[in-house]
TrEMBL record:
GO biological process: putrescine biosynthetic process
Keywords: Hydrolase
One GO MF term attached to the UniProt entry: protein-arginine deiminase activity
Record PANTHER family: AGMATINE DEIMINASE (PTHR31377:SF2), AGMATINE DEIMINASE-RELATED (PTHR31377)
Species of the source: Panicum hallii var. hallii
Protein's name according to its UniProt entry: Agmatine deiminase
Cited Pfam families: PAD_porph
Superkingdom per UniProt: Eukaryota
Length: 374
């Protein structure tokens, strides 16, 4: 049975995008293998993806999608993990946050034909075209929704899941650096983009932060690497105390915007700071391990890594965050996250450096599927 395509504006039908801390049915992940993005044929990255999947599976079911070539290895790797299923799916790369659908839900009484969950299938153009072929990635959202028999809303706007965060109570945060970049939707104005977010995510307030994390050129400054909601009215922000670090200016700029903003409910936003690791830079060995094909973004030695502890995943009762092997800041990040989420168990996944070498982190490689309202 084909998943139904829904017409119209989801917000007007009672749909909204739930906050990430609301209950999940499962978490979706892809499996990395691109040798021109992941070093050593993605071997080190696959170890970190596996750690992240196993950590999340302690809190909620996980579905890992792997190509036909990778499927046997991943299936064998996960055969003793009772809360993980592996499905075969073709893809160009494994960033399910950005390629997957944005799940939206509504209560039965306000739903159309009793639809309580749907997925928004945005246009995907490989972050403004940093790959020259993304034909497989652009079908990921459709395939995920078909597997679950969840109807979808088709959207003409280019948008990646990592470029938005919501509080579940009507507020969305995003960055101008990404959403207003001419490589995404050059024919849309800021107001038009904002109206689409309101009509499709069910939000009434969009807070625009000028820029994302320093060095995050792969995504043009996705918000999920810079800041996120901890709960309604409270935001966690990537920070550095080093005034000479180019990140300092960006963090101060974001802090200024956020502290002068109110959310959809009129609350003044409270900001909690979490220090970035490092700074970390790509080594010559790491850069040499990536195959140069001319079809993907080049990996140069000495490049500042867009490493951030904000790029974590909130599971059912757990927070799964990257550790970068930086003892001082890893420990501090754990403490900040545990205080921010007192009712959750914080798990730091070793090898966060391997994911950031490819251009993202734990939040970027995951996509939550919310529980369908009963």
């Amino acid at each position: 049975m084909m998943a139904k395509i829904l017409e119209g504006r989801p917000a007007k039908m009672g749909f909204r995008m739930p906050a990430e801390w609301e209950p999940h049915e499962q978490c979706w992940m892809g499996w990395p293998e691109r040798p021109d993005n992941w070093r050593e044929n993605a071997g080190p990255a696959q170890k970190t993806f596996a750690r992240a999947a196993i950590a999340i599976s302690k809190f909620e079911p996980v579905t890992i999608c792997a190509s036909a070539k990778q499927y046997p290895n991943v299936h064998k790797l996960m055969e003793h993990q009772t809360n993980i299923r592996v499905v075969e799916m073709s893809m160009n790369d494994s960033w399910f946050r950005d390629m997957g659908p944005t799940f939206i839900t509504c209560k039965v009484e306000s739903g159309i034909e009793k639809q309580t969950i749907a997925g928004i299938d945005w246009q995907f153009n490989a972050w403004g075209g940093i790959y020259d072929d993304w034909s497989l990635d652009s079908d990921i959202a459709k395939k995920m929704l078909e597997i679950e028999r969840i109807p979808r809303f088709l959207h003409k706007m280019v948008l990646e899941g990592g470029s938005i965060h919501v509080d579940g109570e009507g507020t969305c945060i995003t960055t101008e650096e990404c959403l207003l970049n001419p490589n995404r939707n050059p024919n849309m104005t800021k107001l038009e983009i904002e109206n689409e977010l309101k009509d499709f995510l069910g939000v009434t307030k969009v807070i625009w932060i000028p820029r994302g994390l320093y060095g995050d050129e792969d995504t043009n400054g996705h918000v999920d690497n810079l800041c996120c909601f901890i709960k309604p009215g409270m935001i966690l922000l990537s920070w550095t105390d080093d005034e000479k670090d180019p990140q300092y200016e960006r963090s101060v700029e974001a802090l200024s915007v956020l502290t002068q903003s109110v959310d959809a409910k009129g609350r003044q936003l409270e900001v909690v700071k979490i220090h970035v690791p490092g700074p970390l830079y790509m080594t010559e060995e790491e850069a040499d391990g990536v195959l140069s094909t001319g079809h993907a973004v080049a990996r140069e030695p000495g490049t500042r890594l867009a490493a951030s502890y904000v790029n974590f995943y909130v599971a059912n009762g757990g927070v799964v965050a990257p550790a970068f092997g930086d003892d001082k800041w890893d420990k501090e990040a754990y403490a900040v996250l545990q205080k921010a989420f007192p009712d959750h168990e914080v798990v730091m996944v070793e090898g966060g450096r391997e994911i950031v070498l490819g251009g993202g982190n734990v939040h970027c490689i995951t996509q939550q599927q919310p529980v369908r309202p009963s």
